[in-house]
Design brief:
Two copies of one chain form a homodimer. With 249 residues, the first copy, chain A, is of the alpha+beta class. In chain A, 24% of the residues lie in helices and 32% in strands. Chain A has one domain: Pnp Oxidase, Chain A. Chains A, B: This is Flavin-nucleotide-binding protein.
Chain lengths: 249, 249
């Protein structure tokens, strides 16, 4: 069992984010939480309307301890909630199927990060511009400058929801089969079947202009490469670019 | 835009499950919803405690229009809620990154199913036995019989949550780049980068007995195969086995 690491760069542990089960798999430090968030393209956002929970898959991006995503079905509700609404945003990666010698000990290897905060519509033009800075470049660093310029009308039509991560936890299982000692003699195959999300061969748009090659930010999404590693690398490059911009400015 | 298919085998469309955006991508029929559910190993469950939403990743399995999963942080709350609690269970698959010529038209290819119901603890012994029938065999059809028999104590210790799907919707984007007509002349690479979750080389437990080979249900998780296809196939085999059992019984 790994000693739980708590540094100054950790989220506070409260009744809301404290792990209810398998404490040994939990971490509350920024590094562990961000590693899971940054390796994911899709997240799931839970929110409540009139007591009814909703769980919406969407694309998220991160700037420091802020998370952003596009307008969801919560948008209309949020329009009327200037103070924002509590949400829980979760990113999960499945890493393996764990087949034990008893049904009870079957499991999965995974990484997940659960983040709590108060979501609100990012309406202020400066704040919105800042939030939208990463929407393309966080995934494909440098690509935004290569695109057709964004029209003011598009920025206006784009609903951006944001929240500061108030509390969070990460949970990881990365281990082999854990059978009961007396079961290892049971005659059945047991083991881990790893799974990973990988990149396939790019399908260029049929209307591509002649000679249009992928630039570095896109070319890093190479055939056969793991998506989680590629996304984590892109986030690091993006953060480096952002810091460089801020030094120049 | 595809004509929306509504057959008798469809979920009712209400304010809760009606798509708020991109109606053209939505389906409400059982077939479309089950296809997304059955191709996934992980789901995300949203529920509410004292107004606070939670979004928990977990493993789900399906029997007809019922969904089951293991006890989550909601368990303690559910213990005191005999009538159950409203939840939203979502399964999502990322199929591709869509890189357009403008930031605004960047997108993703995906399949998602959002299911609404009232979750409760499955406590009744017969109902629990029925719910647990699929917990191994739905993923690895026939494996349960090969395992060390489940102890009564384990069944007791296993918390099973279940819900009938009251309403649901599926949403799919499976398309190329959709740029504005005037942007196709913009000089930048555009296209789709497909992604898929695939199976890696099995890692046998180091304490495997000599000669223990994978049986068919596990061997179908072959290296390089797509996880979603393998899971969907397993569900079909499982349903076939279940029907055969019922005919015999």
């Amino acid at each position: 069992m790994k000693e739980q690491e708590v540094t100054s760069a950790s989220f506070a542990v409260t009744a809301r984010n404290r792990l209810k089960r398998r404490h040994d798999r939990g971490r509350y430090d920024h590094e562990a939480v961000y590693a899971v968030l940054d390796a994911g393209f899709l997240c799931h956002v839970a929110y409540v309307i009139d007591g009814q929970p909703y769980c919406t898959p969407t694309i998220h991006w991160r700037e420091g301890d802020w998370l952003y995503w596009h307008g969801s079905s919560a948008s209309r509700m949020l329009r009327n909630l200037k103070g924002g609404t509590p949400v829980c945003l979760t990113v999960s990666h499945l890493d393996g199927l764990v087949l034990a010698r008893s049904g009870f000990n079957h499991s999965a290897n995974y990484r997940s990060a659960i983040c709590f905060g108060t979501a609100r519509i990012i309406d202020d033009p400066d704040e919105k511009a800042k939030a939208l800075r990463g929407v393309v470049d966080r995934f494909y660093p440098g690509r935004a400058a290569e695109l057709r310029e964004t029209h003011a009308q598009e920025t206006k039509a784009t609903m951006v929801i944001g929240m500061r991560i108030e509390e969070a936890s990460a949970k990881v299982r990365a281990a082999g089969v854990g059978d009961d000692e007396e079961d290892y003699g049971h005659p059945v195959w047991a083991g881990v079947i790893p799974v990973s999300t990988v990149i396939g061969a790019a399908e260029p748009c049929p209307r591509l202009l002649p000679g249009m090659e992928q630039t570095a930010s896109v070319a890093s999404y190479r055939v056969g490469r793991r998506l989680d590693e590629t996304l984590a690398e892109a986030q690091l490059l993006y953060e480096g670019d952002t810091e460089a911009d801020e030094l120049v400015a």
